[in-house]
């Protein structure tokens, strides 16, 4: 008969701890109690604050008892693979003495032996989980343990024995005493081996990182490929204790190893990645089938020594029970590897609730994530769409879809998916709830301040989660707080330096602050690391535009051709550059190509956004009829938030104020809580309507609310430009010049948006109005130089030439 209770999931490998019955050991000395498993130090039941390395230092001294431990031994034990100066160790000893109550006058607990090292000076009781005392004073060698038992009393509870029926011979008493002494010696030796075992299989700390290997799947069912590893990641990542090497970093390390980014992460590969990333352990799993049942195994292994730190296994009666079995093994493994019981209990949402009970849906989600980090948003979309088709209640898959649609400039689909994720958030893990709620307020309702509140709570629980800093960087950019955005984005790169998206965000953050040399350095770093993202080419193009590097601009556009989700972005960027220089015929052709490329990828919203932005450039260049035509075509193609705003503003500036007000009312009704709609976009639209009614004073009043965030939104600072036009209408040349100069000065934020060039024309008019003809001439010359190759029939160009001629 086959015993199904224990089947080694890795054939040929011994599992010394598979049936681990080792007792939990704690140490007591004086009023102190030290728990190695929980990594806590208590004094009379009160928690004493000790750093992780300080705790390890104290643990070595306590375990070595009254034996002298040299500084070299301590350094090697606490920092096994790092060079650390003695001053670092001395600082930890100093803090430990302070925590224990040692003073300069007396070293009660930790004694310094000059030229030799340190010694723990007080007796230590070693206590098992059941509370029994094993040794009164522990030493590092079996002989010392035995000797100390011969000279020091063992602290045990007295045992009442029945009175003897008759006296026994002395030789029998001598024999009994010898047997007891031998038993004590054996117990001491056994304890020594036990403690050495515990020291070898040291628990992980909060500063350690781990590498997840792919599961060894011997079932023959491909649904488990990638699925169980993803489920394990979800279980571990919801814990604040764990720091799992990200998919981006895994792929980057594989490239450095000369292997494809999608290579299978087997045991040997995982160990090499572990060593290269300075991680502490490899977690590997396996699944095997036994008839209709499944056996799951998990094992944590020190990637330097190969020592097994912990392992767990579980059985599942059916395929549908595999994820539940995975949960049980993962939770037990978390406890074994050092996570506190309180943390495990609080952050242990079952994988089926945190993700999906459908193995097929989880498999599609896992593949989608992998493809996303390797090839980008467009390539990953079908996998995520398949995941929610298989499980319509898959919350984190909806959240991921929302983020991808944001990256692809499809705000309508983005909002639809993040709202769905928000509706399903009740059963997800704590970490995923933060992710979903912050995404919902940021992308769904547009409540940016509320999103920041969620992000700060997220930071308190998961301070090492780089994704929250990515969110904060984008949100502060939308609010126009560009310095704060840079600070958060730099932190995201520090925590995850192997993400092309992070480098793209950092490059853009420097560009927005006109720190172009630093932005270029970031691009070079990304190139050296061989990092790519769909947005990084766009950032490179903007940087090249601002530096006037036409050759690099052309090279970047060429590199994007044929890449879905990137080609259209670069074609649109090129169209904006042509419009910036007044070459509207070429600009329209490029915009049509960008729209066609987007629509081939079923990105109608993206295409509509390109056409709506073109209409804004046309109307300010004086081409009102073309602007109206393109605006109405854009809103017919897609009527999301961004398209509505741009079309409404275009129609207002074109004189169709009734249509603009109607669209503004729709925006107000549809997005009543949206920070940017209410405090940026609607004020800009209503101010433009007021200007058409010649009510410039009203326009200035309406735009006051936008002042704190006027550099926010999408980098098209309409409020500044419109305020300048209002001051022109009020014949306040100095105030108008200040606004247009502000628009010009933020070159990085404005980029190649065509209004940036037209602001120079408006500055010239403001200077002429204030009587400063010299500055007016310079501003006119700047504009005419930019438009030296412009289409000759553009109304703005004709007006500029006529106005400049009058100043001569």
Strand content: 5-15%
CA gyration radius, whole angstroms: 34 Å
Mean pLDDT across the residues is: 84
Structural class: alpha+beta
Distinct helical segment count: 37
Low-confidence stretches: 1-22, 130-176, 179-201
> How many angstroms separate the termini?
107 Å
Helix content: 55-70%
Widest sheet, order of strands:
4-3-2-1-7-8
The oligomeric state of the chains shown is single chain
Total count of strands: 13
Short structural summary:
This protein is α+β, with helices and mostly antiparallel strands.
Can you put this structure into words, describing what you see?
With 808 residues, the protein is of the alpha+beta class. The chain has a 6-stranded antiparallel sheet with strand order 4-3-2-1-7-8, covered by helices on one side. Strands 9, 10, 11, 12 and 13 form a 5-stranded mixed sheet that branches. It has a two-stranded antiparallel sheet with strand order 5-6. A hairpin with a 4-residue loop joins strand 2 (32-35) and strand 3 (40-43). The longest helix is centred in the N-terminal third of the chain and has 31 residues, at 170-200. The radius of gyration is 34 Å and the shape is elongated.
């Amino acid at each position: 008969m086959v015993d199904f209770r224990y089947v080694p999931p890795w054939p040929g490998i011994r599992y010394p701890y598979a049936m681990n019955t080792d007792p939990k050991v704690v140490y007591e000395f004086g009023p102190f109690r030290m728990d190695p498993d929980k990594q806590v130090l208590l004094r009379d039941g009160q928690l004493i604050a000790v750093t992780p390395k300080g705790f390890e230092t104290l643990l070595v001294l306590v375990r070595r008892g009254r034996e002298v431990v040299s500084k070299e031994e301590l350094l090697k034990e606490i920092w096994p693979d790092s060079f650390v100066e003695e001053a670092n160790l001395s600082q930890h000893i100093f803090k430990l003495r302070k925590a224990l109550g040692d003073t300069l006058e007396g070293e009660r607990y930790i004694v310094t032996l000059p030229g030799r090292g340190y010694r723990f000076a007080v007796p230590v009781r070693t206590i098992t989980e059941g509370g029994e005392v094993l040794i009164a004073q522990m030493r590092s060698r079996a002989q010392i343990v035995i000797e100390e038992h011969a000279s020091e009393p063992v602290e045990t509870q007295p045992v009442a024995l029945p009175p003897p029926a008759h006296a026994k011979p002395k030789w029998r008493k001598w024999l009994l005493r010898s047997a007891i002494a031998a038993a004590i010696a054996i117990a001491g030796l056994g304890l020594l081996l036990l403690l050495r075992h515990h020291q070898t299989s040291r628990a992980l700390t909060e500063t350690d990182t781990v590498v997840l290997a792919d599961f060894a799947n011997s079932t023959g069912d491909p649904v488990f490929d990638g699925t169980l590893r993803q489920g394990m990641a979800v279980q571990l990542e919801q814990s604040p204790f764990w720091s799992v090497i990200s998919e981006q970093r895994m792929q980057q390390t594989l490239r450095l190893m000369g292997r494809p980014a999608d290579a299978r992460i087997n045991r040997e590969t995982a160990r090499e990645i572990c060593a290269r990333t300075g991680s502490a352990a490899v977690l590997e799993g396996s699944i095997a089938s036994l008839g209709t049942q499944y056996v799951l195994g998990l094992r944590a292994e020190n990637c330097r020594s190969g020592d097994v730190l912990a392992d767990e296994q579980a059985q599942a009666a059916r395929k549908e029970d595999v994820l539940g079995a995975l949960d049980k093994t993962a939770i037990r493994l978390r406890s074994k590897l050092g996570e506190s019981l309180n943390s495990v209990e609080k952050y242990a949402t079952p994988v089926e609730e945190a993700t999906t009970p459908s193995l097929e849906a989880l498999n599609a989600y896992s593949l989608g994530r992998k493809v996303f980090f390797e090839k980008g948003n467009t390539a990953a979309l079908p996998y995520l769409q398949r995941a929610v088709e298989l499980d319509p209640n898959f919350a984190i898959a909806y959240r991921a879809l929302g983020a991808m649609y944001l990256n692809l400039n499809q705000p309508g689909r983005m909002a639809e998916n993040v709202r769905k994720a928000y509706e399903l958030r009740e059963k997800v893990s704590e970490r995923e709830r933060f992710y979903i709620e912050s995404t919902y307020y940021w992308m769904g309702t547009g409540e940016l301040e509320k999103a920041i509140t969620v992000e700060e709570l997220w930071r308190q629980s998961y301070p090492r989660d780089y994704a929250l800093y990515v969110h904060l960087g984008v949100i502060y950019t939308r609010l126009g707080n560009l310095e704060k955005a840079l600070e958060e984005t730099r932190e995201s790169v520090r925590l995850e330096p192997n993400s092309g998206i992070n480098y793209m965000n950092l490059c853009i953050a420097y560009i927005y602050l006109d720190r172009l040399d630093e932005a270029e350095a970031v691009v070079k770093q990304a190139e050296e690391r061989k990092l790519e993202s769909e947005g990084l080419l766009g950032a490179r193009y903007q940087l090249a535009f601002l530096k006037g590097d036409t050759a690099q601009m052309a090279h970047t556009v060429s590199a994007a051709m044929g890449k879905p989700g990137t080609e259209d972005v670069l074609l649109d960027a090129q169209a904006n550059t042509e419009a910036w220089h007044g070459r509207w015929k070429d600009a329209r052709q490029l915009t049509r190509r960008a729209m066609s490329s987007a629509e081939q990828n079923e990105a109608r919203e993206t295409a509509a956004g390109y056409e709506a932005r073109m209409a804004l450039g046309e109307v300010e260049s004086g081409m009102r009829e073309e602007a109206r035509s393109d605006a109405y075509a854009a809103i017919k193609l897609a009527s999301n938030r961004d398209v509505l705003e741009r079309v409404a503003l275009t129609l207002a500036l074109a004189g169709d104020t009734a249509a603009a007000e109607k669209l503004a009312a729709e925006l107000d009704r549809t997005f009543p809580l949206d920070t940017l709609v209410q405090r940026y976009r609607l004020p800009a639209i209503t101010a433009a309507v007021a200007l058409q009614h010649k009510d410039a004073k009203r326009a200035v009043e309406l735009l006051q609310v936008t002042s704190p965030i006027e550099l926010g939104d999408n980098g098209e600072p309409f409020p500044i430009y419109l305020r300048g036009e209002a001051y022109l209408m009020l014949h306040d040349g100095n105030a108008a010049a200040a606004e247009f100069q502000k628009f010009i000065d933020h070159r990085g934020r404005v980029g190649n948006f065509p209004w940036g060039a037209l602001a120079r024309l408006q500055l010239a008019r403001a200077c002429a109005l204030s009587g400063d003809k010299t500055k007016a001439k310079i501003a006119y010359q700047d504009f005419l130089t930019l438009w030296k190759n412009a289409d000759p029939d553009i109304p703005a160009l004709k007006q500029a030439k006529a106005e400049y001629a009058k100043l001569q």
